[in-house]
Amino acid sequence: MSKILVIAEHADGKLNAGVAKVLAAASKIGGEVTVLVLAADGAAVAAEAAKLDGVAKVLVADSAALANPVAANLAPAIVEVAAGYSHVLFPGTTFGKDVAPRVAAKLGVPQISDVMAVHSGSSFDRPVYAGNAITTVEAPAGTIVITVRLASFTAVAASGSAAVEKVSVGVTAAAHTRYVKLEAQKSARPDLQSANKVVSGGRALGSSENFKVIFDFADKIGAGVGASRAAVDSGYVPNDMQVGQTGKIIAPELYFAIGISGAIQHLAGIKDARTIVAINKDAEAPIFEVADIGLVGDLFTVVPELTAKM
Amino acid sequence: MKAIVSVKRVVDYNVRIQVKPDGSGVVTDGVKMSMNPFDEIAMEEAVRLKEKGKITEIIAVTIGGAKNEETLRTALAFGATKAIHIKDEGEVQPLTAARALAAVFKKEGASLLIAGKQAIDDDANQTGQMVAALLDIAQATFAGKVDVDGNKATVVREVDAGLETLEIDLPAVITADLRLNEPRYLKLPDIMKAKRIPIEATTLADLGVTAAAAVKTVKTAPPPTRSKGVVVKTVDDLIAALKAKGLA
Ligand SMILES: Cc1cc2nc3c(=O)[nH]c(=O)nc-3n(C[C@H](O)[C@H](O)[C@H](O)COP(=O)(O)OP(=O)(O)OC[C@H]3O[C@@H](n4cnc5c(N)ncnc54)[C@H](O)[C@@H]3O)c2cc1C
Ligand SMILES: Nc1ncnc2c1ncn2[C@@H]1O[C@H](COP(=O)(O)O)[C@@H](O)[C@H]1O
Q: Are B127 and B94 in contact (CB under 8 A)?
């Protein structure tokens, strides 16, 4: 039987919402699922994880060395706990992408990134070429290290009550790495990665002042806000709003691409959106090839009207 | 102080990928190939560090078939001072690539590996982190800003929550994100000059590297297609279409 270790990403004493989606992937693999919380004080995070369906046990490794998400400190601790597990799963976030390969290399096993479907304990689907091809892969013998593409799985419910156990790991903080700070964008808007509705703006917005058109519309319909790379590179909005191959991959019910041309790298981030609406003044823009509903027009007249009427 | 930059040859980012009808992979014959865009950014960063006097040598390394020589020529045109071609005609997966890069890193006595954050063919996003693990050195992935000061580097990382700052001691691995810099346009004289620089050839075996157990690709399929949508004329029509789907 598979023994699956799920690494609990967390920040500010709260479990990352992606972990419930990783557990959905774990349940498809089948077997006994343990969640590992690595923190300076992981009690609150462990209590949250213990409620998630399908979790048999939560392990908490408390250590001052694990106070910040530093891969060089987390990886040896995970490797220590991972002995005896058949699978080690991470969310496919920047956290998971940073740490997982460090664990895989230490274990001497390959990693399977961005798993989007599980066929068995060793057979998975994953996207390549910005999602323009989907491969089915077979892992070799040995522990399987995986990052889970969160947009492909639906979070498990929180009706469980797993046991929480302490585990000690012999980790000391690496002298070569000092965590300085995190500048987080505080926003009252729904989180991009879990929002039901997302409104994104592109280069067409032209300035950060003009982006207000997007924010106003998003606030009217209670949506999260995203952006194309061009909008981020031009400094209209911060980097953590980028949607796409190298930004966030999202799967909202409703996605608005406004003044975005629809480059393959952008589309890679929205392939799983249920309904895509495109507003663009160029009827030939590639975004219309994937849009469920398209409106050809100038966003600066269309979007305020939409905000007023919705 | 030596920096290594790993450069991978991949299908150009502008190419629309075609999946082979028999599901055995994607069409690469006759398709334009280029240096992985993130590796161009890594090369540019190394050149800027050299221009600032922070590093003295830039060693470009590629692992792959005979045609990878083109990628090394591009790296030399950027300003690499040396190029190493680890020849291998097979598919080189991240852990094997990482073992090879770690071996070169040690052999050259390098202080820094700058890699791309991900290769846009396999989209694995693994190799740099694996090199750091194998060498037990610091890593700073998804770099949006790098300052090297003697044996220390301050790196601003692009993470999901915003911008994270790490201070790391060299030797270290840094992986380049999109906004680290904008790679320069290569000038013809530099491209011509790069053609005459000798390339050092080696193999995984020469480096004492054994290939890692491979993940086997069983099938490659095109992604599910979205059915063609509707184009509406007015905002009212748009709202009506959303209402019809229960979305407004
Ligand atoms: C390695 C790599 C990775 C990348 N990763 C990403 C990624 O993760 N995410 C991403 O988004 N991009 C990514 N890109 C960039 C991508 O290729 C495109 O350059 C980018 O998505 C373009 O952004 P845009 O659509 O906002 O701008 P443009 O392509 O310039 O499109 C602007 C659009 O706005 C329309 N427009 C202009 N004015 C108006 C108006 N008044 N009203 C309505 N419409 C108007 C125009 O018709 C046009 O279609 C990546 C590129 C590379 C090389
Ligand atoms: N075969 C290779 N040759 C040179 N560099 C490579 C190779 N494979 C991976 N890399 C480096 O590792 C980075 C990440 O690749 P990947 O882990 O495959 O997404 C790339 O941007 C390159 O810098």
A: yes
